[in-house]
Amino acid sequence: MSLPDPDVLDAVRRRRGDLDDALLIVRDGLVEDRSGPHRVAALRAGLRQLRADLYEHVAATEGPGGLYEEVRRADPRFEQTVWRLRGEHTRLGLLLDDLVAGIAYAPQDPAGWPSLRPRVVDLLALLVRHRSRDAQLAYDAVALDIGGQG
């Protein structure tokens, strides 16, 4: 088995940093001390950025020559994990598209806030868990190649 291409790992790392930044913007959009229209505007901007960054992450991991292809080529045992992560990408993309579309047409008053906030919090939790599993895959692929702990 060979290590994933360092350029592929660098591209994934950059996308991960972009996702981190977008997650912070969305989190800041959830802050309670902002008034209705300002909160919704911040949240809308964060969700749009998060959606764009997720699509770039998907391209870096699932695209031709991406991390998932490298990992599967290097060791077929990771096939199941790769398919699960791809499924998570699809689910996260659909959730983000739904939230972005909903907030784009939502009224600017705070009345809709109680139904929106839990959906955004759930999305953030799913993204954090996905990022953890994605990082574990990259770590496992490299650790196994260099002898790891097993």
Count of discrete alpha- or pi-helical segments spanning 4 or more residues: 5
Radius of gyration: 18 Å
**Cα distance spanning the termini:** 15 Å
Query: pLDDT below 50 for ≥5 consecutive residues: which ranges?
Result: none
Strand content: under 5%
- Structural class, from helix and strand content? mainly alpha
Specify the CATH class.
Answer: Mainly Alpha
Shape: elongated
In helices, the fraction of residues equals: over 70%
Number-wise, the strands total 0
Mean pLDDT: 80
Instruction: Using the 3D structure, state the CATH architecture.
Output: Up-down Bundle
Q: What is CATH's topology name?
A: Four Helix Bundle (Hemerythrin (Met), subunit A)
Number of separate structural domains: 1
Report the biggest beta sheet as strand number plus sense, adding barrel if it closes.
none
Element order: H for helix, E for strand: HHHHH
Could you characterize the architecture of this molecule?
The protein has 150 residues and is an all-alpha fold. The protein has a single domain, classed as Four Helix Bundle (Hemerythrin (Met), subunit A) (Up-down Bundle). It has five helices and no strands. The two termini are 15 Å apart. The model has no long low-confidence stretch (mean pLDDT 80).
List key phrases describing it:
single chain; mainly alpha; Four Helix Bundle (Hemerythrin (Met), subunit A); elongated
Task: Give the structure's gist in a few sentences.
It contains five helices and no strands.
Please render the helix and strand layout as text:
Layout: H1 6-29, H2 36-62, H3 67-74, H4 79-105, H5 113-145
